[in-house]
Amino acid sequence: MNDTLFAQLSTLGASLVLLFGIILLWRRSLMAYVRAFQQQSAVLAALFVVVGYFGQAPELYVVAVILFALKVILIPRLLHRMQNQVGIGYEATPYLNVASSVIVAGLLVLLAYVLTRPVVLTSTLPTRGGLPLAVGLIFVGLFVIITRKKALAQVVGFLVLENGIALLAVLGTFGIPLIVELGVFLDLLMGFLVMQVFIYHIQDTFESLDVDRLSELKY
Amino acid sequence: MNTLFLIMVFAYLLGALMALVSGRGVGGRSLTGGAAAVGAASGLVLGLWVLLSGVPYSLYWPNLLPVGGGLALYLDSLGAFFLVVIGVGAIPAAIYGISYTAVYDKGPVSLRLLGVMLNLFLLSMSLVTLADNIFTFLIMWEGMSLTSYFLVMTESEHRETTEAGLWYIAMTHVGLALLLAAFLLLAGDTSGAFADLRANAALLSPTMRGLVFVLAFLGFGSKAGIIPLHVWLPRAHPAAPSHVSALMSGVMIKLGIYGLLRMALDLLGGGPAWWGVLVLAVGAVSALVGILYALMESDLKRLLAYSSVENIGIILLGIGAGLLLHTYGLMAPAMLGFVGGLFHTLNHASFKSLLFLGSGSVLHAVHTRNMEAMGGLIKRMPQTAFFFLIGAVAISALPPLNGFASEWLVFQALLGGANIPNPEVAVAMPVGVAMLALTSGLAAAGFVKAFGITFLAIPRSTEAEQAHESPLAMQIGMGSLAVVCVALGLGAAAVVPVIGRALVGLGGLPQTAPAFQLTLETPDSFGQISPAALGVILLVVLGLIMLGLRLIRANRPVRVSDSWGCGRIEQTPRMEYTATAFAEPLRRVFAELYRPTRELTIDFHPESKYFVQSIQYKSEITPWFERSLYEPLLRLIKGVAYRLRGLQSGSLHLYLLYLALTLLILLFATRWF
Question: What ipTM describes this predicted complex?
Fold first, then answer.
């Protein structure tokens, strides 16, 4: 009974997390990107609590709290501040239009199911249903980074990718050691701060956040 | 021993630190060079200790850089011998460098970088001889290559230097790639410690052993400068400051020999006959072609660099003979070959360092490396000329100096090939003897040219006329090496048994070192010789000749004047024999190899053909190793690189796509393959 509930809850949570990832592909306002990431992180934090409760891993509560503070409060706030400084942007002309993007995302999730099939078949974890979704989210995050031109969109894509990895970790192992988790968070924050610096520099140099302008540097 | 080792390491590190803190000025240079000399001296003592006592020194730090088994140092007799070689070359070079680098006190060259790199170069070189696993060996090897690259690039404001640096770094990394392949093939799935490699080598198939040997021979050969991998030597050695050239040419390239012996004899434990024949053939070709190219050079340091190729060839002749005799179980003559090779290694380290330091003194005074602008320096720099002469006599293998003793041993080992039962293999040895004999003769001609054109007759340029003797530290550097050359020559009979200890027990060689004797003796009594006695006889003969001259001259007046100038009233440098003219007969004899191009332009007087206004003569030899081997290769690489450039569009998104595709392909590969 408990296991069934746990399996259902984890699959539901993972699906929601993936769904928020796919939102990135059909919204164009960067504001919406940040909001989607915020909501995704909130769901992810809730999922950490669920896994912590059912998987008897109390340290996951701590991780959930930090995750909430970092990804739901701090980073979105920083992202908003950045938008205020460089101007609110729209992802006007991505390399792939919305319809094709969503189709590709669907294919990527399918691909994730194919790739994780051997693991899911042999696994006995109650959370195994969510594993393909986590891998799918990683692919979607990569896809966002590749097809979006605005530097800010790419940063959000990276954050989503990172959420996918965190999701995979928590579903696959019921929590990696706390010290590693803390290291990952610190890493994420540092990476984010570095990217922030780059974004300001790109804005200063090109007066635009279109990353494809960077290819001008080659000549 | 531990103390000695620590003194060595910390002296080098301290020297690097000193250079970093204060590179310029007399104080800074003395501290940097002094620390390097102390480090080299403790290395020398450590090496001698291990060599004489036979007790190896070891130090293991498995937790330091634990990836490849950590830092593993183990100094056996073979490594100890090469540590001694490093010491012999490095102490004088470091002292010499104190004064030599004074020219860099002003100017764009960074003395800090030079001092740091010099100390680190010596440190990594010393640790190569101590390495006891693949990881330590390759790290130190690479450290040695990189630091010496920076040393070559010291005068990087010259275009010639940067080109030389590029050749050097490319060749050394090709060598490293080959070595990496050889070591990994040999290691299989063992830990990479040399003891494991030894055990694993016995289990490999003959083909695999052969492959490992060829890869290692080419890899170490590219560092040693065997033909055709020698192209970097005549570029990089002249470009570096002279004390660095001495270290690179005298010491660093010898570590290629160390690696070859370590691999072929120790780790692989000897092999089939074709190994020995290969080494012998490459050695013979390197010796002959190296000295032939040296003869054509009129750049003093390039001449010396080509002569290093020749001497590496001679060393390889000894080692090749040793490997070949070892294959047939003829251990005593094999030992002779190896000892001959090692002795020549030590000797070359001493006289080639001496010659490079001497050429540095000349360069310091005349500011050019072109021999056509020198001459008459013996009057202006008598000490340098004397030391250079000793080096030149030693490298020409004239008795009783050290070059003679080691080449004699190599000859004996080659003659010992008559004991080989297979005649088709044994025939390689007399061919080697003939090549070595020709090489020795040509080397003597080459150094008559080097010494004669540089130091004798009258100056060919105003710079040469105003030349001055070099400062004391430089003279100490050269003088100590000259003493080493003479001592090693006269004391050869005492030195050779000690060198023999470097080899005992390696790859099944006899456990007992040759005993001390007053004469150099070869096991199967091909001959024996006593360089010390030879020296005494020579001195006596020389004394008798001088006495005779004095007796003849006793009652005749002595007139001092110009030598006879065919009736001309004034003698000018233009009447002198030039370096090019000296080598012209050989250029014609070996025209097949040199393919010289000639260009003669004569400007006649408009009125009559019998009055010539100017004559221009230009003659160059075709560098066909570069032309037929390296140029096609470079074209191929450039062509491929040009096509690959399309991948680098500069678009960030495309690069990200590459990443994602790679990830997907790898995931698929693990799923289905």
Answer: 0.84
